Amino acid sequence: MAEKTYEEALQKLQQIVRKLENREVKIDDLAQTVLEAKELVEFCREKLNKTEEEINKIIAPENSQSDDDPLLD
């Protein structure tokens, strides 16, 4: 399976939630559906955390350089 995007995972998770809310999931499929939802939530959390770290790395050097740059003193 190709790597999914955050948007794809979120869309699939929303579909699962709708099915659960509308009681469209058969009892025989419930455990597997909940497991899939759990994996999607974990994927989304990891993606958000990784993105936040990347953004902080992009922003952080600008902040630290301005404090340590002797030309700005």
Automatic annotation (TrEMBL):
SUPFAM superfamilies in alphabetical order: XseB-like (SSF116842)
UniProt keyword terms in alphabetical order: Coiled coil, Cytoplasm, Exonuclease, Hydrolase, Nuclease
Catalytic activity reported: Exonucleolytic cleavage in either 5'- to 3'- or 3'- to 5'-direction to yield nucleoside 5'-phosphates
Keyword Hydrolase included in the entry's annotation: yes
Subcellular location: Cytoplasm
The keyword Hydrolase is annotated on this UniProt entry: yes
Coiled coil: 3-54
E.C. designation(s): 3.1.11.6
Family from the record: Belongs to the XseB family.
Official protein name in the record: Exodeoxyribonuclease 7 small subunit
Protein source organism: Wandonia haliotis
